[in-house]
Specification:
The complex is a heterotrimer of chains A (about 280), B (about 300) and C (about 375). With about 300 residues, chain B is mainly alpha-helical. Chain B has helices spanning about 10-35, 45-60, 65-85, 95-115, 145-165, 165-175, 180-185, 190-210, 235-245, 250-265, 270-275, 280-290, 300-309, and strands spanning about 120-125, 135, 140, 220-225. Chain C is built from 18 helices and 4 strands. Classes of the chains: A alpha/beta (about 280), B mainly alpha (about 300), C mainly alpha (about 375).
Chain lengths: ~280, ~300, ~375
């Protein structure tokens, strides 16, 4: 199942599969500034999709709109052809959209183990009274949750830190914990907001193959925001370039990086950024 | 209510005078919240310390007017100590702890007050403002109401001018607007936060000293067990007044005080079910103000985020 | 991993990073003795030993402490678990107390139906406050609950048909078959049984889907949503459960005191008592059920016992408030956290640890003895 030519497996068959997630004319303004300006994107099944663009181009805003944390002024978000524009974040998780944040959040007062238990929420069904009275449905739930957490603890090698709190482990490790939490949701589409920021170079290099393996083993689609160009271009099969809330280019990584408008916006903005810094 | 049946004008005067008191309490709350990010649930309890000091001083034969001057610093000291010893040491990001601590301080100060008063059901305290009745157009104005209103307005405006013009006031506003930038500009954060706590607590003391020693008309005033509870009897309308300014705007908080004072007293004249529901109406108004998130109208997004972070 | 064993199992992640500064904690050992067991045992010991020196007064104090522990449990759920500051737990208790009282005294209901009715009667208010809590951050919610207590005091508690006007209700403790609740000793046993039942239930809630959702919402609402938790529902459930428990506590309070008047549930007394409840719980340990039990039992018992010793009774309020502030500043986990630290010390250096524990225990007993002998 490894992709050799940079195209997703489905594309190689010569026909475009139905997108698992797409947006239609998404527009969102903050004051007078358009954070998103009629954004149309789509992500296909089992695809790793990259979002490229300078700071403030609207990438994280797009994630927030897809995840339900921001409401668009107009436009729609379609998940497997269902309109989810007005669903709440937890309803989107139930539908199959999982996301991580640019800055790791997690639950600082809970241990690694408890963080992962919280992430099993959507797989459990028992109510509060079942728990208070220790009914069988609660017992079953707890067994399921604990088994799932034990498995994932070994998969991400977090077992040594099982009883530590996120504040007691390195930033890189919390990144892995966050990823483990989101994977626990069994998402169909995984939105990763700068997974490589703040972690060591050795770990960044391991991240690309890992994301591909997650996609292959779980069959989910991954949408990636990343400022590490090596990781973004090496991992993504297709890329959208954004600037000022608009999609300015779309295509294979090599196509997008050679696109004149992308170069212009990126270099222009980069120069401005450095002068400010 | 004594005022029921009296003409609108007399009730209005009374409403304006209690509104002035709410306004003073609210000014103190807003000053402390705006500069240090702590909403002071112990505001009333700190203010009551001054009244207790006043009761003790006058009880031991000190002239009431002098006792007022001596007792205001008691509250100011309590406020500064609360900041220096407690709030300065708690990270502002721990919202729950900060609220619980300020609630705990309310309990501490009110129980100290009850302790100092010897757990009496009632403590009688003398008035310190002259009591005369003025008759104008057939309406009776009580001098206490007029003086309270005038004094509260004078203090509030004096305070607002001080806040806008003086060096300390400018520094306080700088701290309120951008703490980091103010610290980089060499403004001593701790010093000015202490000033805010001292001034705010002083305002609470003045408000309570205006109202409590005159609560029983010509015969002076009473401190009841209700008043030495942690939130007292007037803190909730004071929160309402402060909320009219979104907890951040000083002049709006003063106006808010008058809104609450007037509506509370004018409802006395309303027909039966409404006049009995005065307290409930004020409380519901406060919840509505909270849900409206009034701070949006008075402060920029960054400022609100900095305060709530 | 029953849901997707095949898809999850083969995923092999890269080894987790091994930063030099970080040493993994030792493999978890199964602890048999936990701080909660010790505090629970101490509290129970305190409760059970009360009647020995104090006789009937001991039974009364024990009931009082147990009922405050029930009310404290309602604070645990809403503030400790879900992180929602509620300064109105005593108002919920008031609803329970009033409905129980009116049902027993006026409608002639039996106690075992009246108390559940009182608990259920809190639900509409819980839902109203819960809906508000969804839209308000910590600070604003604190003000809102303070005002809601006022609204209830001005409306519900002024409803003469329910609250019996200024005079309130007088009720009689019933006999439930062989259980004669008019006897203080029997009622005392019933109260303790109810506390432990509720304690067991609330501790169970913590390790469940919704309990963990509450802890998650307390820590980080945004992340909780991102992990599929319905924040609205979680907050509502927290308020409803908390209200039910407070209602039950209020019902028992009415039966204990046999006289209920509305002024206790009106401003400013309602807020003052609510605050006392939050204080008791925060000293005991706000995020564990046992904290409510230990905090309430130890402090209420001290307060009641020193009622005889005039000076010290007055001093208890100052002492509790000071204790609260010191605990929040230095040991925000309350007595539960202190117990845990002490237990760890005993594990590492048994002799020193036990010596320190005995010293403080002895100090407390000694001071209590001193207070009591001074008062008599």
């Amino acid at each position: 199942m490894t992709t050799t030519n940079g195209l997703s497996p489905a594309t190689r068959n010569g026909q475009l599969p139905k997108p698992v997630l797409r947006t239609r004319d998404l527009t969102l303004r903050f004051g007078g500034i358009a954070a998103l300006d009629e954004v149309d994107i789509e992500i296909r099944p089992r695809e790793i999709l990259g979002l490229l663009g300078p700071n403030g181009a609207g990438k994280s805003t797009l994630f927030n709109v897809i995840g339900g944390f921001l409401k668009p002024d107009h436009g729609r978000v379609l998940f497997q052809e269902d309109d989810i524009t007005y669903l709440l974040p937890y309803e989107r998780v139930a539908a199959g959209i999982g996301r991580t944040f640019q800055h790791v959040r997690l639950f600082r007062n809970l241990t690694v183990y408890e963080n992962l238990l919280v992430a099993q929420h959507r797989h459990l069904t028992s109510g509060s009274f079942a728990a208070m009275l220790r009914l069988p449905s609660w017992r079953r739930d707890e067994r399921v949750a604990r088994e799932r957490v034990e498995t994932i603890l070994d998969q991400v090698n977090l077992r040594p830190w099982r009883d530590a709190r996120p504040t007691e482990i390195s930033y890189g490790t919390t990144r892995f914990l966050e990823l483990a939490c989101v994977l626990s949701l069994d998402p169909k589409v995984l939105l990763l907001d700068e997974p490589a920021s703040g972690i060591q170079q050795k770990e960044v290099e391991a991240l690309g193959p890992m994301l591909k393996r997650i996609r292959d083993e779980r069959g989910c689609s991954i949408m990636l925001i990343e400022h590490d160009m090596g990781l973004l271009l090496g991992t993504s099969e297709r890329i959208y370039a954004l600037d000022f809330g608009k999609v300015i280019a779309e295509g294979r990584p090599d196509e997008v990086t050679s696109n004149d408008r992308v170069l212009e916006s990126y270099l222009g903005r980069t120069r401005r950024d450095t002068s400010v810094a | 209510m004594i005022l029921a049946g009296q003409p609108v004008a007399a009730v209005t005067v009374f409403g304006l005078s209690s509104g002035a008191v709410f306004g003073l309490l609210a000014l103190g709350l807003v000053l402390i919240y705006r500069t240090t990010g702590t909403l002071n649930f112990s505001h009333w309890a700190i203010g009551i310390l001054a009244v207790v000091a006043y009761a003790i001083l006058t009880g031991s034969g000190v002239n009431p007017q002098i006792a007022v001057l001596l007792s205001i610093p008691v509250s100011m000291g309590a406020g500064v100590l609360a900041y220096r010893l407690v709030f300065r040491r708690i990270p502002r990001s721990q919202h729950i702890i900060v609220v619980l601590i300020s609630v705990g301080l309310a309990q501490l100060f009110s129980s100290i007050a009850a302790f100092a008063l010897g757990f009496e059901q009632f403590t009688r305290i003398p008035a310190w403002l002259p009591a005369t009745d003025y008759h104008l157009f057939g309406i009776t104005f009580k001098s206490v109401d007029l003086i309270t209103m005038a004094a509260a307005l004078a203090i509030a405006f004096g305070f607002l001018i001080w806040f806008r013009r003086s060096q300390a006031g400018r520094a306080l506003r700088a701290v309120a607007q951008n703490r980091e930038a103010a610290m980089l500009a060499g403004i001593d954060d701790v010093r000015y936060s202490s000033i805010a706590w001292g001034m705010g607590s002083g305002l609470a003391a003045v408000a309570l000293l205006l109202v409590l020693p005159h609560s029983a008309g010509d015969r002076g005033g009473l401190i009841t067990t209700f008043q030495v509870t942690p939130f007292g009897t007037l803190l909730i309308p004071a929160f309402g007044a402060a909320l009219i300014g979104g907890l951040v705007n000083l002049p709006a908080a003063l106006i808010g005080g008058f809104v609450f004072g007037l509506s509370h007293e004018l409802l006395v004249l309303a027909p039966a079910p409404w006049s009995n529901l005065r307290g409930a109406i004020a409380a519901i108004l406060i919840v509505l103000l909270l849900l409206m998130r009034t701070e949006r109208f008075f402060a920029s997004r960054q400022e609100i985020e900095a305060l709530e972070a | 991993m029953s849901a997707h064993p095949s898809t999850l199992a083969p995923v092999q992640f890269e080894p987790a990073p091994e930063p030099a500064f970080e040493t993994p904690p030792a493999a978890p050992t199964r602890r048999r003795l936990r701080p909660s067991h010790i505090l629970g045992g101490l509290g129970l010991l305190l409760l059970v030993s009360l009647p020995i020196p104090f006789g009937d007064f001991g039974f009364f104090v024990g009931q009082y402490g147990a009922i405050y522990a029930i009310l404290g449990l309602s604070v645990i759920v809403v503030t400790g678990y879900a992180g929602l500051i509620s300064l109105m737990p005593y108002s919920f208790a008031g609803i329970g107390a009033m409905i129980t009282a009116v049902a027993m005294a006026s409608w002639g209901w039996p106690m075992w139906l009246a108390i559940p009715l009182g608990a259920v009667a809190t639900i509409p208010v819980s839902i109203l406050v819960g809906i508000t809590s969804v839209r308000l951050k910590t600070l604003y919610l604190a003000i809102a609950t303070l005002t809601f207590a006022d609204v209830l005091g001005e409306t519900f508690f002024k409803w003469d048909r329910i609250t019996g006007g200024e005079t309130g209700w007088l009720l009689q403790r019933p006999k439930l078959g062989p259980i004669d609740l008019t006897s203080d000793a029997t009622f005392y046993v019933v109260c303790i049984a109810v506390v432990f039942l509720l304690l067991w239930m609330i501790e169970g809630l913590r390790t469940s889907r919704l309990g963990r959702a509450m802890l998650a919402v307390r820590d980080n609402e945004l992340e909780a949503q991102a992990l599929g938790i319905n924040v609205y529902k979680t907050k509502l459930v927290a308020f409803v459960i908390s209200g039910l428990i407070a209602g039950i506590g209020g019902g028992f309070l009415a039966v204990l005191l046999t006289s209920v008047t509305r002024s206790a549930f009106q401003s400013p007394l309602a807020q003052a008592t609510s605050l006392l409840l939050v204080t008791l719980v925060a000293i005991g340990g706000i995020d564990r059920a046992i904290g409510a039990f230990f905090g309430a039992v130890s402090l209420v018992i001290q307060q009641q016992i020193f009622q005889g010793a005039d000076f010290f009774f007055r001093f208890v309020a100052v002492y509790a408030a000071l204790l609260l502030i010191l605990f929040l500043m230095f040991r925000p986990g309350g007595m539960v956290q202190v117990g845990k630290i002490q237990l760890d010390l005993i594990r590492r250096r048994p002799i020193v640890g036990i010596a320190i524990a005995l010293f403080f225990l002895g100090l407390n007993v000694g001071v209590a003895w001193l207070f009591l002998s001074l008062s008599s």
